[in-house]
Amino acid sequence: MPRRSPAAYKDKRQSARTRLLQPARLAWDGNAVDCLIYDLSAAGVQVRLAGPPEAGTAVRLQIPLMGALDCEVIWRRADAAGLCFRESPASVARVLGGLASPYRAAS
C-alpha cells in the first residue's frame, strides 16, 4: 500500500482549535460527571472523561464560574468525547469569552 503524504492527513475541521485544560462538568440523562475541556473551537469542544455518553446524546457542559452550554456528543472514545455546541454563536461567546480564542473579547 502506498504511503500518504502529510498533506493527505490535513485536518478537515472548519474551525481552528485552541488547546487548554479547563475543569468542567458534563450532565446528561440524570448523570453528572467531572471532565476536562481538552480543546476548544468555534464549533465545539473535546472533553476528557471516563465513560462518556453515546454519540447523539444531548448533554449540558457546565464550566465553573462561567456558565453552561447545551451540546451534542458527536463522537466518543473510552476516555474522551467530541461535543458540538447546540447554542447560538453569541451564547457560546458569552460563556466562553474568558477561556481562549476564538472567544476572547475584542479589545
How does this model look, in words?
The protein has 107 residues and is mostly beta strands. It has one domain (18-96): Beta Barrel (Thrombin, subunit H), CATH 2.40.10.220. Helix content is 7%, strand content 47%. It has one helix and six strands. A six-stranded antiparallel barrel has the order 1-2-3-6-5-4. A hairpin with a 3-residue loop joins strand 5 (67-76) and strand 6. The longest helix has 8 residues, at 89-96. The radius of gyration is 15 Å and the shape is globular.
Briefly characterize the structure.
This protein has 107 residues and is mainly β. The chain has one helix spanning 89-96, and strands at residues 17-28, 31-41, 44-48, 58-63, 67-76, 80-85.
**How many runs of DSSP E, i.e. beta strands?**
6
- How many domains is the backbone divided into? 1
User: Kindly state the mean pLDDT as a whole number?
Assistant: 82
* Broad shape: globular
CATH architecture: Beta Barrel
> How many angstroms separate the termini?
51 Å
Strand order of the largest sheet: 1-2-3-6-5-4
Radius of gyration: 15 Å
Low confidence ranges: 4-11
| Beta-strand share of residues | over 45%
CATH class: Mainly Beta
Secondary structure class reads mainly beta
Count of helix runs: 1
Fourth-tier CATH superfamily name: predicted glycosyltransferase like domains
H-E string:
EEEEEEH
Instruction: Give the biggest beta sheet.
Output: 6 strands, antiparallel, barrel
Into which percent range does the helicity of residues fall? under 10%
CATH topology: Thrombin, subunit H
Write the layout of secondary structure elements.
Elements: E1 17-28, E2 31-41, E3 44-48, E4 58-63, E5 67-76, E6 80-85, H1 89-96
Antiparallel strand pairs: 1-2, 1-4, 2-3, 3-6, 4-5, 5-6
